[in-house]
Amino acid sequence: MNAKTDTDDKLRERLLLARGHLGDRLMLADATMLEALDGVRALSLTERRALAQSPLTLRRFRQLSLERRKGAAANDARWSGSHGMLRAASGGPLQQLATDDACWSLHFLAQGAGWQIILKLAAGAPFAPRLMREQPLLRVLDGAGAVLLQGRLDGDGECECAWPCAAAPGAHFQQHGAVFGVEPAAP
């Protein structure tokens, strides 16, 4: 990125965040903005307009983004979920996805007419020792919030089940926002 573009971007950000107007109020819930930041779901057109037209909401969105970045940088053993997205396909069937934090991977194995989905915890994840010790119930969600896998990690840090959807994994993720999440399931 060149210095002029970087300076222009910073100036534009300052102008957007500095402007204010009478009667401005928070137009989006924190949960909605966090879902967008985490890649769980995209903001709708109405939500994007609300974000762009409300300096207060835009400032809150920026603050949540900075807090999220700071929390990820802390790299501690606490974990409340990881998210990832479908990347550009290589042309063949989808075989693997990884979360943005590189702590989880999803593997897809063709089995006859169906598929097997395998969730794998990276051994180097900062929270791996705790999850392996505590064995919490985990789930994998698609962009629409449907549960694709739910279970506990085995001794190898994996959990697997039959693929629950009619469409192949790649097509399914494309139809449901091209994002997924791994999170603790509610007990």
Structural features, described:
- The chain has helices spanning 3-18, 30-38, 45-53, 55-74, 128-134, 169-175, and strands spanning 82-85, 96-98, 104-111, 114-121, 138-142, 147-151, 158-162, 179-184.
- A hairpin with a 5-residue loop joins strand 2 (96-98) and strand 3.
- The protein is an alpha+beta fold and 187 residues long.
- Strands 1-8-5-6 form a 4-stranded antiparallel sheet, with no helix packed on it.
- It contains 6 helices and 8 strands, in the order ααααββββαβββαβ.
- It is elongated.
Summarize this structure as a short list of keywords or feature phrases.
single chain, 187 residues, alpha+beta, 4-stranded antiparallel sheet, 8 strands, 24% strand
Share of residues in helices: 25-40%
SS-based class: alpha+beta
Secondary structure tally: strands? 8
Helix/strand order, N-terminal first: HHHHEEEEHEEEHE
What are the low-pLDDT stretches, counting only 5+ consecutive residues below 50?
none
How would a textbook summarize the main sheet? 4 strands, antiparallel
Q: What fraction of the residues are assigned to beta strands by DSSP? A: 15-25%
Dominant shape: elongated
Order of strands, widest sheet: 1-8-5-6
What is the rounded Rg?
Answer: 19 Å
Mean pLDDT: 82
Our count of helices gives 6
